[in-house]
Each structure stands twice: as structure tokens, then as C-alpha cells.
Amino acid sequence: MRFFPLVLCAFILLVERSEAQQLPNILWIVSEDNSPYIGCYGDSLATTPNIDQLAKEGHLYTHAYANAPVCAPARNTIITGVYANSNGNQNMRSNYPLSDSVRFFPEYLRALGYYCTNMSKKDYNTSTTDTFWNESSLEAHYENREEGQPFFHVVNTSISHESSLHRFTPDSSLMHRPEEMVLPPYHPDTKEIRHDWAQYYDRITLMDHRVGEVLKELEESGQSENTIVFYLSDHGGVLARSKRFVYETGTHVPFVVRIPEKFKTLRPSEVGEAVDELISFVDMAPTMLSITDQSIPGYMQGRPFLGPRKTEEPEFVFMFRDRMDASYDLSRAVRSKKYRYIRNYLPHEIYGQYIDYLWKAPSVGSWEQECTKGNCNEMQMAFWKQKRAEELYDTENDPWEVNNLVDNPEYADVLVEMRAANRSWILNIGDAGFIPEQMLLDLVNQTNKAAYDLMRNDTFDLEAILNMAEKATEGGNIDLCLRGLKSEEAAVRFWAAVGLRIRCDQLTKKHKKALKRVLNDESPDVAVLAAETLYLHGENDLAINAIVRVLNQTARPFSRARALSFIREFEITDETVKATVRSTYNNSFEKDRFRYDLLASEVLMSKWSDTAR
């Protein structure tokens, strides 16, 4: 009798293993920082035979989008199925905890029996520990799984990453010729820009070679006919006005899926055909669960675009841009198949804010210098000027998105519809980006709750905050902003201060008096905005004193980063400011590479040192 349970257990294991073998293997090949500058997307400059062949054997998505135009927030969205600006992880390298309600989706695959491996970049923009990988390293591989076990394997390649432009390749060594480059209309025709474009195309070619190696390895493993292959980039890029910006060049990504004959019922079209369907990264997690026929958790904000649980195509997909390294900005974007709408909530900030990492590419400095010399046309100059609060583009007919249609009455209905879609999305997902970062972080630390949870437990009145953000930045009543400065909600006061900063030239004595009252606001972000506005009105001493007070709050690094941006933008050379920046930097014991206030301090101190010489 003791033998029977052993036989039964063995039978159950055989059945489970048999069922597991019916599950598809899943292979992701993820490149970095590249838009669809690829042959199968019609780019005549591209040399990408391996991705082109993959598209012939599979399905090329023509409307695939990263929800964020930079890696860490984009990857946070991918791995959770929740928009990073809903998780509270929208700022570049914000590294805050996830809610207990939100899980990394490979956990569900492992529970189903998958062997999950990652080679090897993670960069999920959260402090929450990722314990879901069986292996995550440069050596991680599906070959280490048990016999017959299905796998989910991610191969990341950084070959086309922005940093590839930081290492100069002589023209004589380039595969692509600078003189043959087709420049966007917003880029001036300089030697450096042509060179960076050519070098970038070279890197895409090398990246394509790596894709070929991974596919060959899969074929040689004998698992190709059991494996669904995804190729995608983590966002667009990489020359200035692409990566980090919610334009087509920053968010439109190459996306190819190959589904073998065994799983042909999952195919979205005939093999080799393009798929004209709107998808975005927030859809990736629910899609992986759908193709393994698992139910989709209610917290996931995307929708499955493949598998038995596939849902209808949406009318819009959504994007977000927040702090990029040490520079603050806040934009939201809505994309239909034809149009792109962008809402800029800090329009007084120029597009081309200084970001140290971006300026490492020679092309960026070249563009800036040409415009400083007066050699740029209006379209090329726009990058170095303040933004419009709203942008609307017919991307189908204006692929570089340079003709803003906001003031064109023929597109009024489109504008109203997409504006409403943006507002609805922000409220529906609990967008944490409208709470100043330091303010939100202080509450996370005080309550030991994730930002995702704080946005859902009545800690903030998001609708009231959004109302002020919209009114303050769209040219509304200036006295509404004045009343907003008296709000008990600190985030409302912040957006009221933004509104007064935008209307700096309209301020009267009563407005300046109100701003002086908030120079000591409990929120240092409110104080920085007030100081900046008063500085522009000649109240230099008051403004400098307020900025110094913020700089001395070393436990609030993100408010300090905002203050340091102001110092750099307006080239403040006050000796008290200089001394404070130096002393707070020297006395900081946390000089890690993601303390952006310290990095901003380094940039300023270097600039002051150069000026002194």
C-alpha cells in the first residue's frame, strides 16, 4: 500500500511536466535607446539584416510606445504593468518602494513553473527587492533550467545606448557616412551632429549583430520552435530631443514578435505582416500573463494585446516625463494613431535644460553653440526656448513633430478630446508626479507607505491639485494662483507658485507680498519657486536668503536639486550661495552617483572654478 502514493505522486509530476511543456518559452531581446531606425521600418540608412529577417518571420508593430522616454521609469512600467507615475517611480532614478499591492510580473510566471532569467540589466527604478529571477547576471541563461521546464529569458544589450556617443569614433572608421545622414529639421547641419548620427547608426548595426547572435543561439539550442521571441527597445533615442522627451523620437520603439507554428493561434496577423495596433509598455506584463493563459491582476493598468485574454485596442496610449537627473520638468502625452498631444506643466522651463549626461555627446553642445551664434532658424531655436503649455501634432503628416496645431481651429475638436483623455488618465491612475518629489518622499518616509498607496488613501486631493496645475499653467486668472498660495494643501501651493512664476511679468505688489510670505513655506519646493519669481523682480537678497535656507536642508536632496537648477539657470554667483554649495557638498557623506543634488553641485563648482581661471 505504501507503494501506491509514490506511483500517484510520480503520475502527478509527469502530468504537470507534460502540461508545462505546452507552455511557450518566452525570449525578450531588449536593446537600449533606439527608435525604429531599422530597415524593416523603412529606414534606408539602417543596416539591420537580423531584425529585418525576424520581422519577415513574425509581426512588426508599427505603433508601439514606451510610456517613458528614459530607461528606469520605462522599465519600472514594463516589469509591474503599472505606469511608473502611478507607482511613484516616475522620476529618473527615484528608487522608492513599490506598494505591496504591486508585484513584478515574472513572479506569476515562476509560480506557473517558468525558469526566469535576466541577462542582466534591471534598473527598475525602485528600492523594492527583485527576488523573482532564478538568475540575473551576465551568465544567466535558460540552459540551466530543468529538462522540459519552460523559460522566460531576457537578453539586454547596451550597444546602442546613449553612452556609445561619448566615445568618439573617427570618421574614417565609421561604417555609415556622416555626409549621407538625413537630419531632422530641428537639428542644424554641423559636423558634430552629422558625425553623431552616423556613429549612432553604426551602433544600431552592431546591436543588430548581437540580436542575430541571440537568435542563432536559440536555434542551436533546439528551442526555436517552442519559443515566442520579442525584440524591442526600452525607449527611443538618442540624439537631443529624442531620449528624455515625450515626442515620437523619444517614445516610439521598434517592436517585433515571432510566434512559432506550434503557437500560431496566438499570432496577431499573417506571418510577415505589420500590425497596426496601439500598444505600450504598460501592456507587456498583462500580455505575458495572457499568452500563458493566466488571469490578469486587477491592479495592472495595461491590457493584453496577445493571447486568449486579449482585449480591444485602445483609442490612446499615454506617456510621461518628469525629473531627468537633476533637472525638473513635468509633461504628459497622449498618442492616437494619427495625433500626439503634449501637456507641459512647467512651460517656463526650456526644452534644452542642462543635463550633464546628455551634454557628453558632442552634437548637443554643437547645437547649442550654433544657436548662440545666431546660425539657427526658428525651428532649431525652439529647443532652447520656453515651451508652450500645450502641443498637438499630426504625426502622420508631420513625423518630426515640429508644426504645433494647438492654435489651428481645424483641430479644435481633436485638441479637446485629447486634452480630456489626458486629464482622465491622470486622475484614473493616481498620477504621483503632481506632488513635488521631496514632498512625496517626506510622506513616504514618515508613513512607511509607498507613493502608490498614498495616492489612494485620501492623503492628497489629486483633483484639486490637478485643477490648480492646469489653471496655473494655461493662462488663467492670476488671482486664482494668489488664492492657491493660501491653500492648506502644500501641492496646491506649489502649483499656485508655478502659475505666478509663469506670469512673472504680470505681478503686482500684492502678488509679490504673497510670494514673500511663502519664502519660509514648510515645503521648500514652494519656497524655491517663490524665490525664483522674486529674484526676477529684483528682490535679490530675499531670494538668495531663501535659496540658501533650502540648500542647507541636506536631508531634502530633491528640493536642493530644484534650488541648484535655479542657481545654474540664472548664473547666480553670490558668494554666500557659492560657500553654501561647497560646504553642504563637502559635509555630505552620501556621495553616490544618484544623489543628483550633489552631482548638480559638482557641475556648479566646476563651472565656478573654470570662470575663476
From TrEMBL:
Q: Where is the Sulfatase N-terminal domain?
A: 24-292
Q: Where are the transmembrane segments?
A: none
Supply the InterPro entries for this chain.
Answer: Alkaline_phosphatase_core_sf (IPR017850), ARM-like (IPR011989), ARM-type_fold (IPR016024), Sulfatase (IPR050738), Sulfatase_CS (IPR024607), Sulfatase_N (IPR000917)
Q: Which UniProt keywords apply?
A: Calcium, Hydrolase, Metal-binding
A Pfam family annotated for this chain is Sulfatase
Question: To which protein family does this belong?
Answer: Belongs to the sulfatase family.
Q: Which PANTHER family match?
A: ARYLSULFATASE FAMILY MEMBER (PTHR42693), ENDO-4-O-SULFATASE (PTHR42693:SF53)
Protein name, as recorded: Sulfatase-like hydrolase/transferase
- Name the source organism: Marinoscillum luteum
